[in-house]
Amino acid sequence: MTTTATDAVLERYEAVIGIEIHCQLRTNSKMFCGCSTAYDGAAPNTHNCPVCLGLPGALPVINRQAVEYVIATGLAIEAHIPERTQWERKNYFYPDLPKGYQISQYAIPLAAHGRLAIETSAGPFVVDITRAHLEEDTAKLLHGEGGGADRTTLVDFNRSGAPLMEIVTEPTIRTVEQARRYAEELQLLLRAIGVSDADMERGQMRVEANVSLRPRGTEPFGTRVEVKNMNSFRSVERAIAYEIERQGHALDNGEALVMETRGWDDGRQLTYRMRAKETSDDYRYFPEPDLPPLRVDAGWVTAVRDALPELPSARRARYIALGLGAYDAAVVTADPTMLMAFDAISAAGSAPAKEVANFVTGAHAKALKAGDANAAGTAGASTPAGIAVLLGAIASGTVTRQVGRELLDRHIADGTQAADLLADAGPSPISDDAALLGHIEAVIAANPRAVADHKSGKPVAGFLTGQVMKATGGAADAARVTTLVRERLNREG
Amino acid sequence: MVFPYHRGMATLTRADVEHVAHLARLGLAEHELTELEGQLNHILEQYAKLAELDTDDIPPTAQVIELETILRDDVVRTSLDPAAVLANAPERDGDFFVVPAILGGD
After folding, report:
1. Do A169 and A240 have their domain in common?
2. How far apart are the CA of A37 and the nearest CA of chain B, in angstroms?
């Protein structure tokens, strides 16, 4: 199915989408016990104690850091942090939940009524966030190979009790792009404030979407389907698009949709039924008697707020104010190494932001890929200050762009001081158009054949530019010469 | 203060008892359901008696001791020996617990 098919459905129906994201928090220990969260790649059932195994009599104690991470997230999404919060038991039976209940937050989440602004191709959009709360992760189930009666499920409790933050939006998302951009922006935010690694493929960030359709111009919500198992942003986009198309076709054909949970199959590029929701979930929430209420006083909130780093939205705005375009500002902000290199080089001199951005997304990124650069703005043997001087020289026209690139390469390769490189590069290039035009006229006069060729439609600008560069001993900006040559030739007709 | 999980006290019907038994994964015979319907309603009557008290000025609590905000620092402590973890497993496969096959569904 293509995006066009989704658009066709959306001409007749409006999509109503809400997103739930679970993310593992970057704590050292689990939510309610001291077992390590560094169980990735460990042998099964090696990171456990009576608390996370749900053994009778074991008592949970709240991890302060996990609470702070949710408060930090709440502040970053402009949510309300209640003075007093509490914990509830969410009761259900499943082999990944040893106690028969999950300790979660229901009545009073740690953060409520937040928002996250995103940019889409149709302009800015604000996603309303209902809540962010804290809970414990479940164990991991592996389904055995055997068939029929021999089929078994294997349980690894290493993940059981790891701190998990659930962030739920209002059903105000209307397009596939908004859904994807929200997930991307939230991941960027969580990483920027350091609360979660939020790697989707590693299950550190799990995105679920509630999708329904209603005929355009009508109010009542349609039958809602929950979609799971989307392990990449691309999957989020494809799965929601698929659901919109599937539901649209069903509604067009008068087929009834059912409340159900569907999984995304990335291989087959479709959603499949995981379980029908014949009755509404009945989790019988009640206050967790093993945990006292949690008071979040104003001083604590202030301390967490003061410790927040610059948020991605603020950073992009600052970069745009420095002179970057919206696209470059977003690209640099989206990469933690790139943004640190950008800040380091910007702070080390007075090179224009645009030049610094070109460098960190170009030569620096290339060196980084080769393992020869770092977030401090250093590439190879270069220094941020040296890079800043050379970028400044390029921007001011002290050297041509081409020569400047060569000087940057040499500075990176052997660390030669930027001042020495500029001194060796010789006199400033001819940046005066009048002087360049003089050279161009001379070259055209000496090559009448070129003008004749141009009139018969042959491309000659490259040849003439080369002649001018030769005449100036390379002391001209080739790109500018080409522009001037083209203008001059166009006057010939 | 409004608690969304609060439900008004009413008589439990047979369907309620069957629903609760299902949620608790209890397979009960007809005569057991009948017996429990009576017992559960008797318990509810006792709570109805408590509800006669005027508690308007008493804040709701789920705790019997007046503690608040008990937190621990994010420090890793040694986990149990896996042999001890698996010692009580009804069935195991290598280092895993084994449970009957789960094929989605609730």
Report:
1. yes
2. 9
